[in-house]
Q: What sequence folds into this?
């Protein structure tokens, strides 16, 4: 596995792969890789000749009160996880490679449009603009055929899919299912912040989604009822947690479903355990009136 830190070296490697007529798969990450990232890299490895994993903690996508400074980093471990999962190149740029004139001097941004107004975007202003912009830079640097994103960040996935379509990137966006701990907690680099008690309670995110699935599978279609059941469960099982949002959202627009769940939807939630904000979701697709859950 090759480790590249500069733009010229990366462009050389990409050019060489193109000359060899290789398909390129990109897995953008912020490092601190876990089994969820490994499954993205493995999928990229199965479907491409050259797998590039980028590792860059993007400062612009963190709000002023968020955890950029303490976001976990472990490059040694990342090298091992990426290599074992099948990466050929890890691209580890420094800030001046991604923001040549400095973060403050960035003038052109990708506007993700109304998809960014809902769910996480409502609590994290400018987050998706920064994600779309850094991902656009990574696409421009690596020119991939396919790029891999986890379903856990459902809104990010939809924003990137939309960006690719609206800006004619010609890149296939591949969604990879959320990887979970045995008790159901979705893997996240931020899980490391949880103390033992919060870690135990954090399982309530996936339990609440399980409850929503069960209700919808057995015929409940009222979005408010489903949201309320989830809220009650979380308040009961994790009384110290603070719910940021629990929303049944339309899968295409991400706007809240106000009445009946009858089209494809994302059920998403964000919950704080102390200062740690965790997210999770389940997608519901209807075919011939029957719900299927992803
Ligand atoms: O999902 C992430 O880790 C980040 O948002 C991404 C896509 C690497 C952009 O910084």
A:
């Amino acid at each position: 596995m090759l480790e590249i830190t500069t733009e010229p070296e990366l462009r050389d490697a990409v050019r060489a792969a193109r000359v060899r007529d290789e398909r390129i798969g990109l897995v953008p990450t912020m490092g601190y890789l876990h089994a969820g990232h490994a499954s993205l890299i493995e999928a990229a490895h199965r479907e491409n000749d050259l797998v590039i994993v980028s590792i860059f903690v993007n400062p612009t996508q963190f709000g002023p009160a968020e955890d950029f400074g303490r976001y976990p980093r472990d490059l040694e471990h990342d090298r091992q996880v990426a290599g074992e999962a099948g990466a050929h190149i890890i691209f580890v740029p420094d800030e001046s490679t991604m923001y040549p004139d400095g973060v403050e001097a960035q003038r052109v941004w990708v506007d993700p449009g109304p998809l960014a107004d809902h769910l996480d975007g409502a609590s994290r202003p400018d987050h998706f603009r920064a994600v779309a912009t850094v991902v656009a830079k990574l696409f421009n640097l690596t020119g991939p055929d396919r790029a891999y994103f986890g379903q856990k960040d459902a809104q990010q996935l939809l924003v990137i899919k939309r960006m690719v379509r609206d800006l004619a990137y010609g890149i296939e966006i591949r969604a990879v299912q959320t990887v979970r701990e045995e008790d159901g907690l979705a893997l996240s680099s931020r899980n490391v912040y949880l103390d033992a008690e919060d870690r135990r309670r954090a399982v309530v995110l996936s339990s609440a989604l399980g409850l929503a699935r069960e209700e919808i599978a057995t015929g409940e279609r009222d979005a408010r009822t489903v949201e309320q059941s989830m809220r009650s469960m979380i308040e009961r099982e994790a009384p110290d947690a603070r719910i940021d949002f629990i929303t049944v959202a339309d899968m295409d627009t991400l706007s809240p479903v106000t009445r009946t769940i009858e089209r494809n939807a994302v059920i998403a939630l964000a919950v704080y355990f102390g200062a740690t904000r965790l997210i999770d979701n389940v997608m519901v697709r209807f075919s011939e009136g029957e719900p299927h859950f992803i």
In short: The chain is about 35% helix and 20% strand. Residues 28-30, 58, 61, 131, 134-135, 153, 156 surround pantoate (CB under 6 Å).
